[in-house]
């Protein structure tokens, strides 16, 4: 367990139906650079040690650490021919083994850190996914096209579809040492008050100045945060970006808020982090 201050929270007394519009190409709004008391970030490895199965832990906490040795050798070229098949097998066999599903993924990674085109780390609490299927469809349009939005809405509207989940597969890449520099803090969704979650529109992520829909979080010391110490290149973290159920639209949101943070116990000469994220949509079919 470590005690750290996380950036990016909205004030606990913030009033409004949505967070301020954020332009990621501009300096952050005042609400996103305030500091709050340190939070205890628990050891995710210890928490997960008593889990009966990976699938049960993932269902109960929204995130899970998975041992996984990948056959990928080039993270720019091997995503389509190698990594996508590995990820689909993980979803079907280890995360959602008892569900009938359809997997939606594309040969695209978000790479971050040393030696990538995005050298900075996302040091602000956020959820990349929205709260509703409608907002997710608007994100599909913003990142892809109006045609893609229509295709997704038609797919989701099918009678046999029970719900939808978006999962982020996060791992280190091209590192020779276990990760100590800028690890990932994850918030357990069931520890968050629904009233502390606000829609957070953003500019600067999707092309052509299109607005995308995400979530901001008010500060609350009762939220439960965890990280996995010293993640290796033979492990990955899977966590939920969003989850919608047609028959239970008021279900507790399962978005896993997260942020990079500076571990105060890390050595000053720790190997700089390089990592990647692969975001996958999963259509949940009725049994």
Structure description:
With 287 residues, the chain is of the alpha+beta class. It has one domain. 19% of the residues lie in helices and 29% in strands. It is built from five helices and 14 strands. The strands form three sheets. Strands 4, 5, 6, 7, 12 and 14 form a six-stranded antiparallel beta sheet that branches. The protein has a five-stranded mixed beta sheet with strand order 1-3-11-8-13. It has a three-stranded mixed beta sheet with strand order 2-9-10. A hairpin with an 8-residue loop joins strand 9 and strand 10. The longest helix is centred in the N-terminal third of the chain and has 17 residues. The radius of gyration is 18 Å and the shape is globular. It starts with a strand and ends with a strand. The model has no long low-confidence stretch (mean pLDDT 94).
Features:
alpha+beta, 6-stranded antiparallel sheet
Summarize the structure.
The chain is of the alpha+beta class and 287 residues long. It is 19% helix and 29% strand.
Strand and helix map with partners:
Blueprint: E1 2-4, E2 22-23, E3 39-43, H1 44-49, H2 54-61, E4 63-67, H3 79-95, E5 100-104, E6 110-113, H4 133-143, H5 146-157, E7 161-172, E8 184-187, E9 197-203, E10 212-217, E11 225-227, E12 235-245, E13 258-260, E14 274-285
Parallel strand pairs: 2-9, 3-11
Antiparallel strand pairs: 1-3, 4-12, 5-14, 6-14, 7-12, 7-14, 8-11, 8-13, 9-10
Helix pairs in contact: 4-5
């Amino acid at each position: 367990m470590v005690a750290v201050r996380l950036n990016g929270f909205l004030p606990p007394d913030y009033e409004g139906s949505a967070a301020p519009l954020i332009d990621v190409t501009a300096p952050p709004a005042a609400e996103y650079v305030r500091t709050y008391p340190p939070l205890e970030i628990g050891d995710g490895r210890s928490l997960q040690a008593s889990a009966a199965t990976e699938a049960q832990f993932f269902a109960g906490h929204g995130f899970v650490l998975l041992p996984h040795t990948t056959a990928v050798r080039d993270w720019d070229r091997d995503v389509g021919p190698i990594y996508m098949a590995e990820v689909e097998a993980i979803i079907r066999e280890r995360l959602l083994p008892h569900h009938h599903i359809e997997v939606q993924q594309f040969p695209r990674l978000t790479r971050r850190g040393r030696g990538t085109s995005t050298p900075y780390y996302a040091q602000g609490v956020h959820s990349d996914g929205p709260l509703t299927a409608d907002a997710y469809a608007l994100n599909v349009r913003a990142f892809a096209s109006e045609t893609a939005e229509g295709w997704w809405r038609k797919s989701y509207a099918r009678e046999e579809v029970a719900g939808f989940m978006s999962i982020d597969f996060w791992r280190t890449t091209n590192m020779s040492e276990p990760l100590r520099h800028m690890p990932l803090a994850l918030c357990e969704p069931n520890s968050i008050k629904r009233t502390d979650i606000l829609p957070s529109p953003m500019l600067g992520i999707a092309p052509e100045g299109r607005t995308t829909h995400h979530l901001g979080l008010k500060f609350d010391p009762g939220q439960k945060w965890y990280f996995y110490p010293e993640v290796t290149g033979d492990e990955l973290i899977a966590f939920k970006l969003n989850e919608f159920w047609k028959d239970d639209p008021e279900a507790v949101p399962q978005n896993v808020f997260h942020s990079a943070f500076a571990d105060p116990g890390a050595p000053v000469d720790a190997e700089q982090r390089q990592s990647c994220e692969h975001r996958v949509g999963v259509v949940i079919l009725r049994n």
